[in-house]
Write a structure and sequence with these properties.
By secondary structure, the protein is an all-alpha fold. About 80% of the residues lie in helices and about 0% in strands. It contains six helices and no strands. α1 packs antiparallel against α3, α1 packs parallel to α4 and α5 packs antiparallel against α6.
């Protein structure tokens, strides 16, 4: 593996994860009605840390391969949606808009995974847990949005 590529993609993941530090769930999220199956708070940073490492490893593997343009474009798209979701949900409290972003995230993660599978099986498999986690996050976003219909978004 090219460590320079890995560190570059890990830095991109770090930039995305920084939104989690800037827009923490806080009291607003704690006060929302949530489904019983909501993971405990400590699970989120652990899961994301593992997922970001897997994302960086998979991207570094594929970036070094020929004919990787579409796969890397999907990777760029998914990290953009990943970065966008947190400020919309936790910062602006716009659960509906966050759900739209989440759909884009899910689709772009699925597309990345499929494109990676075509180029490198390990890279593809490294994206499977990410798609599972984004599926759970999508269901959670949708459930919280539906369970809290009267919550008003923060003014931009």
């Amino acid at each position: 593996m090219d460590w320079g590529l890995f560190l570059t993609f890990l830095a991109a993941c770090g930039a995305a994860s920084a939104t989690g530090a800037m827009f923490e769930p806080g009291k607003w999220y704690e006060g929302l009605a949530k489904p019983r199956w909501t993971p405990p708070g400590w699970v989120f940073p652990v899961a994301w840390s593992v997922l970001y490492i897997c994302m960086a490893v998979s991207a570094a593997r594929v970036a070094a391969l020929p004919d990787n343009g579409q796969a890397m474009a999907f990777w760029a798209l998914q990290i953009a949606f990943n970065t966008l979701w947190t400020p919309i949900f936790f910062g602006l409290h716009r659960m509906r808009a966050a759900m739209v972003v989440m759909v884009g995230l899910w689709l772009s993660v699925a597309a990345t995974m499929l494109a990676f599978f075509q180029l490198d099986l390990i890279a593809g498999w490294l994206f499977v847990p990410y798609l599972v986690w984004v599926s759970i996050a999508s269901a959670l976003n949708f459930s919280v949005w539906r369970m809290n219909p009267d919550v008003q978004p923060t003014a931009a």
